[in-house]
Amino acid sequence: MNSSNNVHYENNKSEFNLKTIEHGHHNMKYRGVKCLKCPFDYVTYQMIINEIKPDLIIEIGTYIGGNALYIADLLDINNKGEVHTIDIEDLVDSELINNHPRIKRFLGGYENYDINIVRDFNTILVIDDGSHQYHDVKMAFEKFKDIVSLNSYYIIEDGGLTELGYGETHNGGPLRAIEEIMKNTNQYEIDRKWCDFFGKNATFNTNGFLKKLR
User: pTM for the complete prediction?
Assistant: First the structure.
C-alpha cells in the first residue's frame, strides 16, 4: 500500500458522525459492564443527578445493567438515593449490580411496577430507556409523569433513533411520542439546557430532557 493510500485510510478512520457514535456506544462499558450509552449523555447525567440529588431514580430498561450501576455510584457520591431499574427479562450477570446496596431490580416490565412503592420518596427522577417504541414511550409517561418531583426530570432516551434511520421500525419512536406529549401537557417543558449542552441536540436523547414545572 503506497503512502497516498495510507493517508486516505487514516482520513477514513478519523471520520466523525452520528453513525460512528452509535457504533461506539454499543461498545461502551462502565466498570466492565456493558451500558450502551452515548458518552455525552453520561456526562450530562452526572450533572443532573448532582443538581437534583434525587432519592429515587426509576430506570425503565435495565438490559445488562451498566447504566443502573453508573447511576447507583453517582448516588453513592451524593450519599443518598436508590435506583429502581425495571426490565421484562433478566439479562444481568454482574455481581456488581446484584449486590449494589442502592440498586433494586424489578422484572415484568414498567406496566407491572407498583407505583405505590414511591410514596416514601421525596425527590424522584425517571429515565425511560425501554423499548423506544412509540406506544411504550407514551404509556410509560402516562404512568410515571405525576410522580416526578417538581423541578426534576422525566428523561426520554434515544430520540436520536429517528435521525439514525430507525424511526419507522419504532412507529415514530421517542420523537413522535415526545411531540404528542408536549402538545398535551402543561406539567413539563423540554429543557434546552441539557438537550443543547454540547450543541443543539448533541445527545442521543433528542428533545428528551423533560423538566417538571408544575
Answer: 0.90
